[in-house]
Every structure is written in structure tokens, then in C-alpha cells.
Amino acid sequence: MPISKIRGVNINWQVIGNKGPSTRPWVVMTSGGRRSYEEFIPLANKIAAYGYQVLLHDRRNTGASEVLLEGDEGEEIPWTRDMFELTQQQNIQPAFFCGSSSGARTSILFYLRYPQAVRGLLLMRVTGGAFAAGRLPENYYGQFIRAAQQGGMAAVCATEQWKERIAANPATRDYLMAMPPEKFIAVLTRWNEIFAAGGKYPVMGVTDDELKSIKVPTVIIPGNDKTHSSASALFAHNAIPGSELHRLPIEDQDVPLIPFPDWASYEAEIAHTFADFMARTMAAEGRLQARA
Q1: CB atoms near residue 51 (< 10 Å)
Q2: What is the CATH number of the domain that holds 59?
Q3: Residue 222 backbone phi and psi in degrees, to 5
Q4: Could you say which of 97, 147, 234, 259 is the most buried, measured as most Cβ atoms within 10 Å of its Cβ?
Q5: How many angstroms separate the CA atoms of 208 and 228, rounded?
Q6: Nearest to 274 by CA among 40, 48, 30
Q7: Backbone angles phi, psi at 38, to 5 degrees
Q8: Is position 175 within any domain?
């Protein structure tokens, strides 16, 4: 897959769909958690079947992309800056930005910083609520801080999540082992503070006023577990002016997390929903341009 140097970091990315000239806008998809974009390939193929080109990428510190653990503004803002430069380099702005879970949040944060680069938002499994606010800081940061405190960087490399990233990019182990545990702990502690502070909002990491400020067409597909409760999606839908809500034939379940691959049987419906929404958005744009 292509590798591009983005803001000093090697980013792994892939295009799904027709690579020739197209009058249709691109779709930029961001997966959830800290997982590789590979979990989105099946859905990306289904969206591409409607004639769209889809850009997938591993965010810095995820998948096969390079690791750079530094900075005091958290993980998600650098992700938006990387996305802007990558999509600018590929000359695909403005695009539709699509994401699930942390990918949905990153797509919203991207719009808030670069509205001119966004044609619309396709959001799935919006995160929020007390359960997510309690679970995710530990999942993303707390367990790794303790590992470094108790066993140094070798213990961090031995955790399940970092073993997956090392398998995707072996250079990740070299980077981690060369990093002083004290620096690793300091960076993740700061990131944890920033992330946990966003847990007080019904849509994690995004204020009510920020949701109300969104002015691009938006469609939301609710999740159905305790981390991605349908209530969080409903709140986002009610806050984002003119947004659409599409409910899958599912009900909320009393489980911490339903992995995205377990939604495989709904991917055809998701792809159709997004393709129809984008077609209607483009048609509305065309009518406005014709009147101008």
C-alpha cells in the first residue's frame, strides 16, 4: 500500500474504487478505536460499488503507520491535521468524511477545523455517555501507563494492542524500546487528561455548541452497545442542524462493545444509506448552483 510522509510521519493509506476520472466526490473513511483501516475494507468496497472512490488510512500510532508519541494536545487533533494534509496532497477536497466510533469523532473534529474541506459527514456508532467516559481512558491510556510504570517499555510492547501494531509495522517496537519510560508515561498521562475531559459531553470530545455549528449535510447511524449507545447518536442528531438519522434493524445491547466486524451483515444497508445520502446531497448542490 502507498506510504506518504505527512507532517513528519509515514502514513499508510489505500484507495478503494475506480482510480480514473470521476465527477463524484471522494469518501474518506476513518476506523474506530486505535485499529487499522483494514476493518473498513469490506464496507469501503460496497460504497465504491456505487461509483465512489474511498480513501482509507492508518492514523499515526495505529496500524502500519509510523508511531510518534509526543505533543501536549492529545492524539485526535494531530489526526485531523494529518488527514487535511493527506487529502490535500491527493487533491480530493472537499470530500465526504466517514467514521465509526473514534473515527466519527475525528470526522467531526476535522470539520470543526477544516470546514472548507468537508462536503458532508457520514457518522456511525457515535460515542458518549458515562460508561464510555469511564471505559475508554483506561482502554486507550491507563493500562499502558501502568505497564510502563511496572515493567518499562518491554511491558508496553507485550500488551495486546501494541503487539498488534508491532506486527503491522515492526519498526514500532524499535521506536518504543528506544523511548524512555518516563517520557512515554508523561505523554500518555497528558493525552489521557485531555481525552477524559471530553467525556463530560453527551457526544464524547465535542461540545454541544460545536455540534450545533455543523453546517454540512450529515447522516448518523446509531450504535447499539454501552460504548456507542443509540442515545449518543440521537443527541448528535438533535444537535446537528438538518442531520438525518438512519436506524439499522438492531436494538441496544447490554454489552460493553460490539466489534465493528460484527456489523458485517448490515454493511450493504449502510453502504446504500450513505450512497443515497451523498447522491441527494450532490443533487441539492446542483440545484443551488443552477439557481446562482
Answers
A1: 14
A2: 3.40.50.1820
A3: -65, 155
A4: 97
A5: 18
A6: 48
A7: -60, -30
A8: no
Whether 259 is in a domain gets the answer yes
Residue 34 makes CB contacts below 8 A (sequence gap 6+) with: 59, 61, 62, 102, 140, 161, 165
For the sheet containing 95-100, what is the strand order? Answer: 3-6, 9-16, 54-57, 27-30, 95-100, 118-124, 218-221, 244-245
User: How many domains does the chain divide into?
Assistant: 1
Residue 152 makes CB contacts below 8 A (sequence gap 6+) with 181
What confidence tens digit (pLDDT) does each residue in 29-67 have?
999 999 999 999 999 999 999 999 999 999 999 999 999
Report the run of H or E that residue 55 belongs to, with start and end: strand 54-57
Q: What is the largest CA-CA distance in the chain?
A: 66
pLDDT at 121 over 90: yes
What is the Cα–Cα distance from 33 to 53, expressed in whole angstroms?
23
101 touches 236 (CB < 8 A): no
Domain of 257? 3-129+202-291
Per-residue cell: 270: 449502510
CA distance 48 to 239: 30
Q: Mark out the alpha helices in the chain (DSSP H runs).
A: 41-48, 76-89, 102-113, 130-137, 143-157, 160-168, 171-177, 181-197, 208-212, 230-239, 267-291
Asked if residue 8 belongs to a domain, the reply is yes
Tell me, yes or no, whether 74 lies in a domain: yes
